[in-house]
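ok, trying the design again with the full structure, not the truncated one.
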């Protein structure tokens, strides 16, 4: 039995690189509340205009969403013989075969862009332009390491100070256009903020605070936050 969920990294596409054919309404994303990777995917779906083409199911407490956990368990079992390990999200599943396509978020983000209705290469050309790909990946690694609910105030300040300085010159962290880096930054800030570890830090970085609030008013970001925020906090 796997000690943790195995990395499943099939791809959507045609040709040698793809094992699943891109088709509308074929795929389903399982997302988790209070998960920055799930938040990134939910925002990206909306930015690409795929929220009506790719189904999404939010995993909350197993007692609250037992059918969702059962369906995801079946998908893992169909993919991994006698699978008895944990269930992870985000996970992209193929509704036609009932199998898991991938539980690797970077691959899922790239594959979504090739689905019908997603503007073909919109993610690559707009949200992840080739000239900024290395910077986007480096920033994503920094956020995963240092901008978390468990981070200390000193670590947060060190990580966020350069971002605050960048925003003095441009409206977005990597320039004049919104990219995947902004989705990543906003998701990390939202997750850390929900845990109550950001208030003092953002007070010392007013540009970053205003930037996060501005993105939060964008329909794609606002819709994703509403989808993945537990009802108790939305109503509170």
């Amino acid at each position: 039995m796997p000690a943790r969920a195995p990395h499943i990294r099939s791809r959507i596409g045609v040709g040698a690189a793809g094992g699943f054919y891109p088709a509308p309404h074929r795929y389903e994303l399982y997302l988790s509340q209070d998960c920055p990777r799930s938040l990134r995917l939910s925002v990206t779906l909306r930015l690409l205009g795929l929220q009506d083409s790719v189904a999404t199911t939010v995993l909350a407490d197993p007692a609250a969403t037992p059918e969702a956990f059962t369906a995801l368990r079946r998908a893992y079992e169909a993919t991994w013989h006698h699978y008895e390990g944990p269930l992870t999200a985000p996970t992209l599943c193929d509704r036609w075969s009932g199998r898991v396509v991938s539980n690797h978020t970077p691959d899922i983000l790239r594959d979504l862009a090739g689905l019908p209705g997603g503007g073909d290469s919109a993610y690559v050309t707009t949200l992840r332009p080739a000239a900024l790909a290395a910077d986007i990946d480096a920033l994503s690694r920094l956020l995963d390491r240092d901008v978390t609910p468990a981070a200390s105030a000193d670590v947060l300040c060190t990580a966020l100070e350069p971002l605050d300085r960048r925003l003095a010159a441009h409206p977005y962290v990597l320039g004049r256009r919104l990219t995947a880096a902004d989705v990543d930054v906003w998701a990390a800030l939202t997750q850390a903020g929900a845990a109550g570890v950001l208030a003092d830090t953002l007070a010392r970085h007013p540009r970053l605070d205003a930037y996060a609030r501005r993105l939060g008013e964008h329909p794609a970001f606002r819709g994703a936050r509403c989808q993945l925020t537990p009802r108790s906090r939305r109503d509170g």
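Keeping the full-length input from now on. The chain has two domains: 27-126, 129-234.
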